[in-house]
């Protein structure tokens, strides 16, 4: 196995020199990857068009619907989304649109707060804007593991208890959520399931000399821990 963290097409050129049997690309950018004649499977978002390789994709819209519904069932009616509101990033667009559709379906008002980035400090910094708003939400959906980690720390530093004062649900269903200061309820495709689907797809792509399903959206699952609870009275 050969691993590269270079830009996608640069990595492709490297792999071709080694005459690999197939390639797995983690690509969330919008441009098309030049694959040549090498079997390729990409993990990214299904908004991509004009591609001739299979894409394994999480169902981000369904993820947000499950997260919103989970909080709604706890009695929350003021649910904010905190994440990157980047119109050029298709993955982030799908998350935001999924949140908005789920809120609209339940006849709830949407509240989105832009982190301006995807790292821990971006989530931490966004909490100031959230709390300076006229009304503090009773629940927050964080757009990623790193963002939610920053949100959690910022709320704790302001003596806001999770989930007593504000509930928090994060996108990204990864094991690290269990070890956060407050074990995080999260939504997404578990990494072991994702890895299995990607490996199965590339093996099929190598062994079967025909096109396979171009876009496969994986069903997300909710992992319930301790960061979400009933809405405060």
TrEMBL record:
GO molecular-function terms, A-Z: DNA-binding transcription factor activity; transcription cis-regulatory region binding
* Keyword Transcription recorded: yes
InterPro entries given in the database record: LacI/GalR-like_sensor (IPR046335), Peripla_BP_I (IPR028082)
Keywords carried by this UniProt record? DNA-binding, Transcription, Transcription regulation
List each copy of the Transcriptional regulator LacI/GalR-like sensor domain by range: 68-227
Query: PANTHER family annotated for this entry?
Result: HTH-TYPE TRANSCRIPTIONAL REGULATOR GALS, LACI-RELATED TRANSCRIPTIONAL REPRESSOR
Name of the molecule in the record:
Transcriptional regulator
> What's the source species for this entry?
Gracilibacillus boraciitolerans JCM 21714
